[in-house]
Design a protein that fits this description.
Helices cover about 75% and strands about 0% of the residues. The protein is an all-alpha fold and about 325 residues long. The protein has one domain: ABC transporter involved in vitamin B12 uptake, BtuC. Helix 4 packs parallel to helix 9 and helix 6 runs antiparallel to helix 12.
């Protein structure tokens, strides 16, 4: 009997180590590592199909092209952690880029002032979103989608359909230049943003309050937290990071154009979800979001490479399937 009981209680080979790893790291970190592993495989595929580019350049491209999405997705991550969603990102980005290029003159000082101004505009838009949600009680999806439409109309009126000007030179050099060891500045910025963003969420009192509000607003209120202030501040941060993403995109392309943020809405949401965050709020990490951004970028690079349509279809389908399995697996362990 003793032997049978021991055998019955003994875990299957490898199960105990996986449980210990999950307990030690946390489920979200395991999801991030899994997503990064898939990203590494896709990057290898991209290297193999892009014969005209070196392996190093392909790797740097994955990181560099992820920067704008990662910045926009930071604000989206905080909003999702509170249980909301920000659909105004596309035209906050476009607004930031258009006004930055319009207000940037030939002098570096003027460009820097324009840069700060568009960040303030993004924060104001986020504040309006937040107040509409917590004070007027407009659902987040409705409020931010309406704001997106308002900004689209405002930018069209301001530009008369034709944005002018160019990006400030310091942003052009920052987004297109290379730094230490020949690594693009954008890669260093992405790494720095990932570390800083993760610290602000996990290592500060504000970050802990965001998680508390997202997990249960009632419990957070009973604990003395001002839930409405936390929720509104999440949209202020999202508006600011969206405007920053638009400015960075303008520096990368050296000019602004209408609708420049449209393609970043779905990736900003998908990256958060792929990275292990719960759309109901209270669970997720920015490291996982960055991993999700890298995965989406690597898929895009593979899809744009010189390979047959069949190869592209199989790669994309397999990537989406693996990602879905990883996410469902993470949810099943909750």
């Amino acid at each position: 009997m003793t032997g049978d009981t021991t055998a019955a209680q003994s875990p299957r080979p490898g199960v105990g180590s996986r449980v210990r790893l999950r307990d030690r790291m946390g489920q979200t970190e395991l999801v991030a590592l899994s997503v990064l592993a898939v990203t590494a495989v896709l990057t290898l595929v991209a290297i193999l199909i892009n014969h005209n580019s070196s392996a190093t350049n392909v790797i740097w491209s994955v990181f560099a092209l992820s920067l704008v999405t990662a910045v926009a997705a930071y604000g989206q991550t905080i909003v999702v952690l509170t249980g909301g969603l920000d659909l105004s990102i596309p035209w906050v980005m476009t607004m930031g880029g258009v006004f930055l290029s319009a207000w940037s003159g030939s002098s570096g000082g003027q460009g820097a002032a324009a840069f700060v101004a568009v960040l303030l505009m993004g924060a104001i838009v986020g504040l309006v979103n937040g107040l509409g949600i917590v004070v007027v009680k407009v659902p987040a999806v409705v409020m931010t989608l309406a704001m997106n439409g308002v900004l689209e109309g405002a930018v069209l009126i301001y530009t008369n359909g034709a944005p002018n000007g160019s990006a400030p030179q310091f942003l052009v050099r920052l987004m297109n230049g290379r730094g230490a060891w020949g690594i693009p500045y954008s890669v260093w910025i992405l790494l720095g943003a990932a570390v800083l963003g993760a610290f602000l969420l996990r290592g500060t009192a504000y970050g802990r309050r965001v998680y508390a509000v997202g997990a249960s607003r009632r419990a957070a209120a009973l604990a003395g937290l001002r839930s409405n202030v936390i929720v509104a501040s999440a949209y202020v941060i999202s508006g600011t990071t969206s405007a920053l993403a638009g400015a960075l995109l303008t520096g990368f392309s050296q000019q602004s154009y209408l609708g420049m943020g449209d393609q970043y809405l779905l990736p900003s949401i998908a990256a958060v979800v792929i990275g292990g965050a719960s759309v109901l709020g209270g669970r997720g990490r920015y490291v996982g979001t960055v991993a999700g951004v890298l995965l989406l970028t690597s898929i895009g690079i593979v899809m744009s490479g010189r390979s047959s349509d069949a190869t592209k279809t199989v790669t994309f389908g397999a990537s989406v399937l693996v990602t879905a399995l990883l996410f469902n697996r993470s949810r099943s362990h909750q």
